[in-house]
Structure prediction request, 408 residues.
Amino acid sequence: MNESLSVLVIITAAFKFINTRWMGLPSMIGVLLLSTAATLCLMMVSAFDPSIVPSMTAALSSLNLSRLLFGFMLSFILFAGAMQIDHDAMKQSRGTVMLLSTVSTILSTLVIGLVIYAVLHWLGMDLNIIACFMLGAILSPTDPVAVLAILYKAKLPQHVRVTVAGESLFNDGVGVVLFTLFLGLLNGQSEPSVGSIGMVLLHEVALGLVVGAAVGAVGLWLMRAIDHYATEVLISIAVVVGGDLLCHILNTSAPLAMVAAGLVVGAGSARVMSERTQDYVDKLWELIDEILNVALAVLIGMHLMLVHFQWTYAILSIVLLVMVPITRYFSIRLPFAFMPKSLRMDKGLPLLLTWCGLRGGISIAMALSLQADGLRDIGVFVTYSVVLFSVVVQGLTVERVADRLEVQ
Prediction:
């Protein structure tokens, strides 16, 4: 496993260098394209040397992805993202953000799950409806990492940028909770009743947010007592590691806890840290966010070698490339039709949020954490297809769309 991680770091650094030096694309886009191209080249070379792909797949299989992704990478990514949000602007958009990240994510998960079930049934492949909803939970969360830098170049109001970032962070957490819930139902670990599902969601969401806020507050209290940048940087890392461990002990949602902890630490950092310390902490978490998301892009590209291709997967992916954006648009639009005027949005915002809804690191992490079987093959293939389309096609055109919509 140590060798595999070393190779992953080396490949990630090489792809990052190539993109920065010659391609000049946003990191997630450039590295994902390079990873895909490298994987396709390896698969073509394997026609002349069949030993290449088996040795690569053995190295990838040696990684304990479930532990690596959900026990390490995911918590750091979400905390880092929450740290970088403009917290004052976030307060003004909190109603919109919470509605989008909960109701819209649940609607999207259910509709995409039904689409997957219907398409596979039409193609003669029966997949458990719970498994289809779980795939819906994988494909519903959005990830702003690849697009936020582009959005800041576009002439958009601050509250729009904060809405995109905040909604993405919280729907990541909600998406992981739904994924865990459906995975538990699929494995027989939970009872498929409305009451039990509601209790699971309440426990995961409410307790997760409370734990995260508490751990973040403790971290701030410790930082307030000293003025030493190295120690305070270490405390911010301990907040993530300790909060994640506590969530596992309490069996609650670590992703939502890390979002809450990141928001608490980020909002209070200006009060408890010196300017020098805040600069170190902010740059550290910006770097962690960048590195981990780029590493996930490499992982999803390389893991195509583990997928046993079927035309059924390709047809399903083509349908989802159309249905995922459509479902996101209506899952954003419908809830607001029944909301008070105070939560109504600019008429162009649903379309902008739809096109800004790039799938990325979180979807990749959930797909790669599935057990190695037919369900994982479907999950990895369709997730890769949707992520590649959204990151490359939507990511490269979102600035143009944002400028044309002129959202106020």
